[in-house]
Design goal:
five-stranded mixed beta sheet, binds magnesium ion, binds adenosine-5'-diphosphate, alpha/beta, 16 helices
């Protein structure tokens, strides 16, 4: 097959039509409602966050946030000024390998000592236990591992991921464990909330926009993808099994875990590249939406398309003879998603930026036609991601009757893809406009990047914990 017909075929493979998107909105809505009914292993998780207040920008005071993500532990203090602004101080530690694999007691003590160091450095007045209980600092804890949360301040660890293996911590309450370690060091800190990073993103953006708009969704587009949104409690039937929901609460933020949307791939596009990629992951048949959308995967999808073209002799014909066996283009997981961003940003007539990126992956020489093909492949891979995201955001807006209830509907986003991929937001907006359900209402949607959601959001969560 020649390059132009192979390219046409690939564009068709990655095409997400307007009609498909209209159906996606309805399919997502159905799956999400099922997830709100009851928990089941292969349905959309739709996890209650126990956060029942949305900030309006007037929150005030000094709060702490701790964030355990991949390999770093971050502690920060956030001073909320009550006028949508804040000041943030932070410190970060790389968790030592032996701490990631040792005993639970050592691990929690390590985190508590980091908190102690932070207080000594930035809030010496708060670092002793002399204070009375009212002066304790409230802390929100962003803990990015699977937990079964049963209250704002209670959640048991289901399993470790990302290289952690502290076996005696599994099955224990992470909030209580951190609190105990903090108390053992006599720190005046109350760990009052466990916060998912998407929930933090929604709260942080809500605080920033204040009463000028209603933030309904917080969405992460980084290594992985996920979103939280605010839902009426009366529409979350499975909450009836928990006794920790305040009687007066009307809404609750729900962590959709949308990375797991359509794990059975009844609806999602499923090219040969998606299928082959899935088999190379540690969790085949899970996180199927995420595997078509987020930073961890887009570079690898691109690599698989390029490799397939290369092996069929449709592209890089002159570079092929001198290609090394260990070149990145031939090595799974060796092309970073930033390749797609550089490609989209290259507006030069001879695409020199793309050649530079190609050289890094082992292709030292290419024709202009080949570079144009690379640019188009990058574009269709990113465009599919943006359009799928738009479809399920619209699904959430439909479920919540957003356009009937609010004049301006706001969405907070965070992560390298939305931050660095040129015009990603515009691609999302274009897809929203093309939807029957949204159409001209797209103008009523505001989208803003909410950096540091895990810090500010966790602090806000602590502020509202009462
Ligand atoms: P995290 O989700 O872990 O908090 P980030 O939001 O920084 O982290 O996202 C990291 C992911 O984004 C990685 O998968 C990386 O490949 C991808 N990435 C990094 N830089 C860019 C870029 N310029 N354009 C697109 N994706 C990028
Ligand atoms: Mg992040």
């Amino acid at each position: 097959m020649n390059l132009s017909s192979a390219l046409e075929r690939t564009k068709r493979d990655f095409l997400v039509t307007n009609q498909y998107l209209d159906n996606l909105v309805n399919f997502f809505e159905k799956e999400a409602r099922e997830g709100l009914q009851k928990d089941s292993e292969r349905s959309l998780p739709m996890l209650p966050s126990f956060v029942t207040q949305i900030p309006n920008g007037s929150e005030k005071g000094l709060f702490l946030a701790a964030d355990l993500g991949g390999s770093n532990f971050r502690v920060c203090s956030v001073h909320l000024n009550g006028d949508r602004s804040h000041e943030l101080k932070q410190m970060k530690w790389r968790v030592p390998n032996e701490t990631m694999k040792g005993s639970a007691a050592k691990f929690w003590t390590y985190l508590a000592k980091c908190i102690q160091d932070f207080l000594t450095e930035h809030h010496p007045e708060q670092s002793s236990f002399e204070l009375d209980g009212n002066s304790y600092l409230k802390m929100g804890f962003t803990f990015s591992f699977p937990i079964r949360q049963t209250a704002l301040n209670s959640g048991t660890l289901i399993r470790w991921t990302k290289g952690y293996a502290i076996e005696d911590a599994v099955g224990t309450d992470v909030c209580e464990s951190l609190q105990t370690a903090v108390r053992a060091l006599n720190l005046p800190v109350d760990v009052v909330a466990i916060v998912n990073d998407t929930v933090g993103c929604l709260l942080a953006r809500s605080y920033e926009t204040g009463s000028s708009a209603q933030t309904l969704v917080g969405c992460i587009l980084g290594t992985g993808t996920n979103a939280a949104y605010s839902e009426k409690i009366s529409r979350i039937p499975k909450l009836a099994t928990y006794d920790s929901v305040p009687k007066s609460a009307k809404v609750m933020v729900v962590n959709t875990e949308w990375g797991s949307f359509d794990n059975n791939v009844k609806f999602l596009p499923n090219t040969e590249y998606d299928q082959a990629l899935d088999l190379m992951t540690p969790n085949p048949r899970f996180h199927m939406f995420e595997k078509r959308v987020s930073g961890m995967f887009l570079g690898e999808i691109l690599r698989r398309v390029l490799e397939s073209f290369l092996k069929k002799g449709t592209i890089f014909t002159s570079a092929k003879t001198s290609l090394r066996k260990d070149a990145d283009i031939l090595t799974p997981w060796s092309i970073d998603t930033s390749f797609l961003s550089y490609s989209a940003a290259d507006g030069s007539s001879d695409l020199t930026g793309i050649q530079q990126e190609l050289t890094k992956i082992g292709i030292s020489d290419s024709s202009l036609e080949e570079r144009q093909a690379v640019k188009e492949i990058c574009h269709v891979v990113a465009l599919r991601s943006a359009r799928l995201v738009a479809g399920i955001i619209a699904g959430l807006l439909k479920m919540t009757k957003a356009f009937e209830k609010f004049e301006v509907v706001d969405i907070g986003m965070d992560g390298a893809i939305i931050e660095f991929y040129p015009h990603y937001e515009e691609m999302v907006r274009e897809a929203l406009r093309s939807l029957r359900f949204v159409g001209a209402n797209e103008k009523r949607i505001t989208i803003g990047i909410s950096r540091d959601g895990s810090g500010i959001g966790a602090a806000l969560c602590a502020a509202m914990a009462g």
